[in-house]
Design goal:
This protein is an all-beta fold. It is about 0% helix and about 35% strand. The strands form two sheets. Strands 3-1-9-5-6-8 form a six-stranded mixed beta sheet, with no helix packed on it. The chain has a three-stranded antiparallel beta sheet with strand order 2-4-7, with no helix packed on it. The two termini are about 25 Å apart.
Length: about 130
């Protein structure tokens, strides 16, 4: 696994994984472009998350995106549900809410592994929960 430390910042390990596409004819699972690679070491204070482009069935439009960061236990610690506009493809920690074990926090725990999940939604019925 490759990692990179950013100067002057406490590291946090993010394991990037795009969520599965919605069952049926929904949009394809988005490509995560930031963080750039699995195992990238980044700041726990401001995670820069980017995904895209939207790829759905003919005529489908990108309605919103669900973003989630999970701890190594699999439980969600941060989320932003059905965000629109620029946040649908480019988001930061301040644009979502810390939940679960990190509810009330403003940063991730340093030196801890996390998994980033993102799902694009079109106008189709809601997909199954992210796994």
């Amino acid at each position: 696994m490759t990692s990179r430390r950013l100067p002057g910042l406490l590291p946090v390990l993010i394991l990037v994984a795009a969520s599965a596409a919605a069952q049926g004819s929904g949009p394809a699972a988005p490509a995560v472009t930031e963080p750039e690679f699995d195992g990238q070491v980044i700041s726990p204070y401001d995670v820069h998350m980017v995904a895209g482009p939207f790829a759905g069935p003919a005529g489908a439009v990108h309605v919103c995106s669900d973003w989630e960061i999970r701890a190594s236990t699999g439980s969600a610690v941060w989320s932003a549900s059905c965000v629109t506009g620029a946040l649908a493809v480019h988001i930061h920690l301040g644009d979502g809410t810390f939940v679960g074990a990190l509810a009330g926090h403003h940063q991730l725990d340093p030196d801890s592994p996390y998994t980033l999940l993102v799902r694009f939604k079109d106008g189709a019925p809601p997909p199954v929960p992210m796994r």
